[in-house]
Protein backbone atom coordinates (compact mmCIF):
# COMPACT_ATOMS: atom_id res chain seq x y z
CA UNK A 1 0.00 0.00 0.00
CA UNK A 2 1.46 3.37 -0.99
CA UNK A 3 1.93 6.00 1.71
CA UNK A 4 -0.51 8.86 1.40
CA UNK A 5 1.19 12.21 0.82
CA UNK A 6 0.87 14.68 3.65
CA UNK A 7 -1.45 17.57 2.84
CA UNK A 8 0.35 20.88 2.49
CA UNK A 9 -1.56 23.27 4.73
CA UNK A 10 0.72 26.20 3.94
CA UNK A 11 1.19 29.01 6.46
CA UNK A 12 -1.68 27.71 8.62
CA UNK A 13 0.54 24.82 9.70
CA UNK A 14 3.31 27.17 10.86
CA UNK A 15 2.56 27.31 14.61
CA UNK A 16 1.88 23.57 14.76
CA UNK A 17 5.10 22.82 12.86
CA UNK A 18 7.07 25.09 15.19
CA UNK A 19 5.72 23.29 18.28
CA UNK A 20 6.44 19.92 16.66
CA UNK A 21 10.00 20.98 15.84
CA UNK A 22 10.70 22.17 19.39
CA UNK A 23 9.29 18.96 20.87
CA UNK A 24 11.27 16.86 18.40
CA UNK A 25 14.45 18.81 19.12
CA UNK A 26 14.09 18.21 22.85
CA UNK A 27 13.77 14.49 22.22
CA UNK A 28 16.40 14.11 19.50
CA UNK A 29 19.10 16.12 21.25
CA UNK A 30 18.35 14.58 24.65
CA UNK A 31 18.98 11.12 23.19
CA UNK A 32 21.73 11.81 20.67
CA UNK A 33 23.41 15.00 21.87
CA UNK A 34 24.67 18.19 20.29
CA UNK A 35 26.29 16.52 17.28
CA UNK A 36 23.00 15.12 15.97
CA UNK A 37 22.35 16.33 12.42
CA UNK A 38 19.94 19.26 12.30
CA UNK A 39 17.90 17.34 9.70
CA UNK A 40 17.08 14.67 12.32
CA UNK A 41 14.88 17.22 14.07
CA UNK A 42 12.78 17.80 10.94
CA UNK A 43 12.48 14.08 10.35
CA UNK A 44 11.39 13.42 13.95
CA UNK A 45 8.86 16.28 13.78
CA UNK A 46 7.44 14.95 10.52
CA UNK A 47 8.05 18.19 8.64
CA UNK A 48 10.27 19.10 5.71
CA UNK A 49 13.71 20.64 5.92
CA UNK A 50 12.29 23.87 4.50
CA UNK A 51 9.91 24.18 7.44
CA UNK A 52 12.77 23.57 9.88
CA UNK A 53 14.91 26.31 8.33
CA UNK A 54 11.98 28.75 8.06
CA UNK A 55 11.43 28.51 11.80
CA UNK A 56 15.02 27.93 12.91
CA UNK A 57 17.72 29.09 10.49
CA UNK A 58 20.46 27.69 12.75
CA UNK A 59 21.00 25.53 15.83
CA UNK A 60 21.19 28.56 18.09
CA UNK A 61 17.72 29.70 16.99
CA UNK A 62 16.38 26.27 17.91
CA UNK A 63 18.18 26.24 21.27
CA UNK A 64 16.86 29.73 22.04
CA UNK A 65 13.30 28.55 21.28
CA UNK A 66 13.71 25.62 23.67
CA UNK A 67 15.15 27.85 26.38
CA UNK A 68 12.45 30.45 25.79
CA UNK A 69 9.90 27.84 26.88
CA UNK A 70 12.06 26.91 29.88
CA UNK A 71 12.50 30.54 30.90
CA UNK A 72 8.76 31.20 30.70
CA UNK A 73 8.34 28.52 33.37
CA UNK A 74 11.09 30.16 35.45
CA UNK A 75 9.52 33.62 35.05
CA UNK A 76 6.12 32.28 36.11
CA UNK A 77 7.76 30.75 39.18
CA UNK A 78 9.47 34.06 40.00
CA UNK A 79 6.19 35.97 39.59
CA UNK A 80 4.28 33.56 41.81
CA UNK A 81 3.94 34.70 45.44
CA UNK A 82 4.95 31.16 46.42
CA UNK A 83 8.10 31.19 44.25
CA UNK A 84 11.34 30.53 46.13
CA UNK A 85 15.01 30.18 45.33
CA UNK A 86 14.82 26.51 46.31
CA UNK A 87 12.00 26.09 43.81
CA UNK A 88 14.06 27.93 41.19
CA UNK A 89 16.98 25.57 41.69
CA UNK A 90 14.62 22.59 41.44
CA UNK A 91 13.27 23.96 38.14
CA UNK A 92 16.79 24.54 36.81
CA UNK A 93 17.82 21.01 37.74
CA UNK A 94 14.72 19.54 36.12
CA UNK A 95 15.27 21.55 32.94
CA UNK A 96 18.99 20.82 32.73
CA UNK A 97 18.42 17.11 32.95
CA UNK A 98 16.33 17.18 29.76
CA UNK A 99 18.06 20.08 27.97
CA UNK A 100 21.77 19.44 28.41
CA UNK A 101 22.57 19.36 24.69
CA UNK A 102 20.96 22.77 24.32
CA UNK A 103 23.16 24.16 27.06
CA UNK A 104 26.20 23.33 24.93
CA UNK A 105 24.58 25.11 21.98
CA UNK A 106 23.83 28.20 24.05
CA UNK A 107 27.30 28.30 25.60
CA UNK A 108 28.88 28.03 22.15
CA UNK A 109 27.01 31.20 21.13
CA UNK A 110 26.88 33.08 24.44
CA UNK A 111 27.59 36.44 22.73
CA UNK A 112 24.71 36.02 20.27
CA UNK A 113 22.10 38.71 21.01
CA UNK A 114 19.34 36.07 21.23
CA UNK A 115 21.31 34.26 23.94
CA UNK A 116 22.14 37.50 25.75
CA UNK A 117 18.40 38.24 25.98
CA UNK A 118 17.76 34.82 27.54
CA UNK A 119 20.43 35.49 30.15
CA UNK A 120 18.84 38.85 30.97
CA UNK A 121 15.48 37.17 31.52
CA UNK A 122 17.02 34.63 33.90
CA UNK A 123 18.72 37.50 35.74
CA UNK A 124 15.36 39.27 36.03
CA UNK A 125 13.73 36.19 37.56
CA UNK A 126 16.66 35.83 39.96
CA UNK A 127 16.31 39.53 40.96
CA UNK A 128 12.64 39.05 41.81
CA UNK A 129 13.24 35.91 43.84
CA UNK A 130 16.21 37.35 45.73
CA UNK A 131 14.23 40.45 46.67
CA UNK A 132 11.33 38.34 47.96
CA UNK A 133 13.55 35.86 49.83
CA UNK A 134 15.63 38.66 51.36
CA UNK A 135 12.52 40.56 52.49
CA UNK A 136 11.20 37.39 54.13
CA UNK A 137 14.52 36.85 55.91
CA UNK A 138 15.10 33.54 54.15
CA UNK A 139 18.50 34.42 52.69
CA UNK A 140 21.58 36.33 53.71
CA UNK A 141 21.39 40.03 52.89
CA UNK A 142 24.70 39.76 51.04
CA UNK A 143 23.20 37.35 48.47
CA UNK A 144 22.25 39.00 45.20
CA UNK A 145 20.99 37.93 41.79
CA UNK A 146 24.54 37.55 40.47
CA UNK A 147 25.15 34.89 43.14
CA UNK A 148 22.03 33.06 42.01
CA UNK A 149 23.06 33.25 38.35
CA UNK A 150 26.50 31.86 39.23
CA UNK A 151 24.86 29.03 41.18
CA UNK A 152 22.59 28.29 38.19
CA UNK A 153 25.61 28.23 35.88
CA UNK A 154 27.47 25.89 38.21
CA UNK A 155 24.49 23.54 38.44
CA UNK A 156 23.95 23.55 34.69
CA UNK A 157 27.60 22.90 33.89
CA UNK A 158 28.01 20.18 36.49
CA UNK A 159 24.86 18.34 35.47
CA UNK A 160 25.44 18.78 31.74
CA UNK A 161 28.98 17.44 31.77
CA UNK A 162 28.80 15.01 34.68
CA UNK A 163 28.23 11.28 34.44
CA UNK A 164 24.50 10.72 33.85
CA UNK A 165 24.43 7.85 36.33
CA UNK A 166 25.78 10.10 39.09
CA UNK A 167 23.45 13.06 38.53
CA UNK A 168 21.06 12.33 41.41
CA UNK A 169 23.97 12.42 43.86
CA UNK A 170 25.38 15.53 42.23
CA UNK A 171 22.03 17.29 42.66
CA UNK A 172 21.91 16.45 46.38
CA UNK A 173 25.49 17.59 46.93
CA UNK A 174 25.06 20.80 44.94
CA UNK A 175 21.99 21.79 46.93
CA UNK A 176 23.76 20.93 50.18
CA UNK A 177 26.58 23.29 49.18
CA UNK A 178 24.35 26.11 47.93
CA UNK A 179 21.89 26.53 50.76
CA UNK A 180 24.40 27.15 53.54
CA UNK A 181 25.98 29.84 51.37
CA UNK A 182 22.62 31.56 50.86
CA UNK A 183 21.17 31.02 54.35
CA UNK A 184 20.13 34.02 56.43
CA UNK A 185 22.14 32.77 59.39
CA UNK A 186 25.29 30.65 59.51
CA UNK A 187 24.51 26.96 59.44
CA UNK A 188 26.47 24.67 61.73
CA UNK A 189 28.50 22.12 59.79
CA UNK A 190 27.16 18.65 60.48
CA UNK A 191 29.28 15.57 60.16
CA UNK A 192 27.09 12.94 58.50
UniProtKB/TrEMBL annotation:
Location of the HTH tetR-type domain: 15-74
**Which stretches hold the DNA-binding feature?**
37-56
Q: Which Pfam families match?
A: TetR_N (PF00440)
UniProt GO molecular function: DNA-binding transcription factor activity; transcription cis-regulatory region binding
Keyword annotations from UniProtKB, A to Z: DNA-binding, Transcription, Transcription regulation
Q: Under what name is this protein listed?
A: TetR family transcriptional regulator
What is the scientific name of the source organism? Homoserinimonas aerilata
Q: What is the lineage of its organism?
A: Bacteria, Bacillati, Actinomycetota, Actinomycetes, Micrococcales
Amino acid sequence: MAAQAKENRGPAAGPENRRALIAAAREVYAVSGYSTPFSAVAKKAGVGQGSLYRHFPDRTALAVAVFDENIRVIEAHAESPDGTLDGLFDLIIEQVLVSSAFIDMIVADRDDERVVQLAARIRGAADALVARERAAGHINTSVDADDVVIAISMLASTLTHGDAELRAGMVRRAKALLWPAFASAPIEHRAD
